[in-house]
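Data availability excerpt. The first of two example chains:
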Amino acid sequence: MEDNSTIQEFPVFEAKHLIEDSFEYPIQINGKVRATLNFTADMSKEEIEKLVLENDLVVKWLEGATPKKIIVVPKRIVNVVI
């Protein structure tokens, strides 16, 4: 007598399960990673920049200084130069 309880069909591949809906950005301040923040994958550079500058941890590291430049590389990194 054969035991068929362990025989199952192989799962079907569905590309929709591989699509990322968010991305965790490392936030660099003067070249050193100081925080990581999650944003939706389709968020614009301007929205990311605005939310980074509003973040409490980033504000602490800025110490009241105004950033000279903010570089946002989509789905890679955010760099704040002070």
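And the second chain:
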Amino acid sequence: MYDKDSRSDAGTNNNYGIYLSDAFGNKELLYRDEQISCLDPIPVKARPVPPVIPHLIAVGKPLKPGEKFVAPDPKTIPDFGTVGLINVYDSIYPMSDLPKIAALRVVQLLPKTTPIANNPRIGFGDQKSARMVLGTVPVEDDGSAYFKMPANLPVYFQALDAEGVAVQSMRSATYVHPGENLTCLGCHNSPTAGYRMNTTAPMALKRPPSVIKADVEGSKPFSYKILVQPVLDKNCVACHQKGAAEGKKCPDLTQGELKQNGDFFVSYNALRNFTFFWDNASFDGVPDSRPGQIGARKSKLFQMLTKGHHDLKLCKEDMHRLTLWMDCNSDFYGAYENLIEQKEGKVVCPSLQ
């Protein structure tokens, strides 16, 4: 215990000291410092030296005693790290009754370059970050993946089925330092469960790391004008215009007139109630990501197209463009600047990446 000195000759220096106390209230002074109070003693006990964890990144390596700092040659610093996923099916919510996972989509979140929230508004969601799709990497039959990832970029992953449609999605972000080896145990695996050792190494870790494969035009940088509007013009606009002329309730899926501000296309606004996006006021009050309940798979548009919509037959690429768009929060813009150029279909690279 610790207590103040109650002796009559203690003087004005009444600092706390460390005492040994028994059940009868007797106490014996063990230690006192005349300059400062002594509180919260910690027993000291000899213990084995903890294991030395090797340095895992290519920059910022700690110096040894007496060693002088020498700036590394930028040419020797890799611009990537590696990511190893042990088992994508190791998840809090079961994924066994859903399609088999065939790939991971890597999506980069972009730093905001404008000071005011929702100015510009990137899409339907509230106070959202712009993003772009870096591409996909394969997932092995045992649920493992291993790939190179660009360093120092905030990204999140989506687990995709064989058709490239998201089954599960991260709701947070991660990144790698140059030369770092990052390992994930699962896709939203339990934070309280320890790693279960397998008798064999994951299949993906037995081979060299995969290289991210870029996706379709309009996904990097992201652009509704390039990614989605051509699909609508090719497959939907004429039929919807014909139906509207006949008095039917057909959403207007045309682009509409370009306006000199951050407004969206007529088609984009018309699809709001048929698509999917994360938002504080939407998604039925469920803030987390549950397998099969996110992205295109959760949208009315995807369900309508997969069941059959009149005589519409989308080719595989056109269907992929729509599902990719909805999996990525149904965004419109891919950067915070040059909005008119983006609406005109020009490739606008974000000023900060």
